[in-house]
Amino acid sequence: MWMTTYGDLITQILIFFVMLFALSNVDTNKFNLVMSSVQGSLGVLPGGRSLIEGEFVEEGLVGENLYLGEQEQQELREIGESILEIVKENGYHGVTVSLDERGLAVRFMEGVFFDSGKANLKKEAIELLDEIAPILKKTQRHIRVEGHTDNVPIHTREFPSNWELSTARAVNVLRYLVENHGIPPKMISAAGYGEYHPVAPNDTDQNRARNRRVEIIILSSSSMTQEPN
After folding, report:
1. Can you name the CATH fold of 2-224?
2. 61 pLDDT above the threshold of 60
């Protein structure tokens, strides 16, 4: 009988030391990315800047991106860090940067670029685009501008539905970058997704505000092959 107790004790001691060993080898980078992803998923909070200083958010993939090679991932990271530095230096709010299967996504909440229900670029939006446009142009990668809304219907003479509103916003950002910063038209496109690509459930005012956004995507090589030449 004493062998049973002794065996249990030895097993528990072994488990204890295995746990100590595992905890002593925590991958700090992966842990930080987990925390960044959690913070990024919360979106823009009132009165604060939704940014991760240092390592930026990788949404959906922690520590690695299955869609990107190491060299391409590093290139996109460097671009993202440059954009975050501009955002930080100028004190812009409502901007996040992340890596996902599309490439590098720079997300701007509605209030950064547009007034509610409007598609005309605000003065602050123009200033921000002026700052980041040289980085976008230098990448020589295809860029897709995406417009998104919440699920609250809109029905005006200018915008009969959220499709028109989201598309008009994306096109206005595209035209500004092409006409004022010389981004080659063949390297940039616009898409309006209306309410159908939300980042949060449309069940609260805060979540609906998160869904009203424009995203500038610097496309990965795999995503670029899906764009027309």
Report:
1. 60s Ribosomal Protein L30; Chain: A; (3.30.1330)
2. no
